[in-house]
């Protein structure tokens, strides 16, 4: 007899299952995919660890979460320093003194600040009406035109002048020569990939996993059989889209094995022009400083989302947030179902946030 059914073997479901098993509970897990791990799943191809669902870099400021995840894998010292390719010109990210030097030839922080200020003043935008105006009012026209406009328009599938200003609240600008994308104290990539983290979390004889199994193919039975369900699928689907569909942006990944050792010299290169249809290229071996004779790259194409395609990024505008709130009200009335994870909470979560959220639920539920 199981104590819990966990729907989804992603990081949320697996963290909860691990904690429940530790407390002596018996856990059944199902996943509709043919592998565990949800979107953090990695697999080895040509001796290279491939991030199947896009680049995943673990980062956190929280010592507790860092210690927690380090129980399940050893991490390397990978530091995320993506670069931007704009019509063949390379710029460092996040926007920093290296970026400003390349753009304007400036050398000191004062010169860079003066340049940005000059462009912001020239644009003369008092109250930004859309994302384009918001971005220019924050960082000026050069950075916007070369590094923000094309990338953002590809990501959202809409013109920046048609996107609401609130999407960009701030744009991190750094007046040092520091290319480290994250400000967090801890970051890295698990040596050997992310799948082992999930495998190790689920390595208990109290946990049993069934793949290729969709909750909705047998929902009534599951609801009857299990005393409690942790559900990490789409919340609107759980309620049969009663209030309509929540919207997402989707992605298409196109991978290739190349007969060369090093394709782009960096794990992540963003394409910030409007013409290139993909928004970035990942070269997986650089996450682990790989020296294999071949290399694997993945082009990432932002796509619109339709029911049935993979939902990657929630579109948290007012319309969707209101709809989600209605679903959340229904969810709170379900005494035997706990909703969690990025799809259950309709929220973009980084990995450290998913672990923290699952641990909070586990504490409330198990202790
Ligand atoms: P996740 O989606 O991983 O798991 C849910 C599971 O439930 C899936 O396996 C799914 O198949 C299953 N499921 C859904 N419905 C079901 C049903 N009806 N029946 C059975 N199973 C069902 N974070 C970070 O910290 N650093 C990073 O660099 C990145 N990079 C990144 C890139 C991209 C492209 C994306 C989209 C996301 C990131 N992330 C990230 C975020 C990271 O992917 C995220 O935090 C976790 O994967 C979320 O874990 P969940 O368990 O919530 O969902």
Automatic annotation (TrEMBL):
Belongs to the UDP-galactopyranose/dTDP-fucopyranose mutase family. This is UDP-galactopyranose mutase. SUPFAM superfamilies: FAD-linked reductases, C-terminal domain, Nucleotide-binding domain. Residues 147-348 form the UDP-galactopyranose mutase C-terminal domain. Its cofactor is FAD. Keywords: FAD, Flavoprotein, Isomerase. InterPro entries: UDP-GALP_mutase, UDP-GalPyranose_mutase_C.
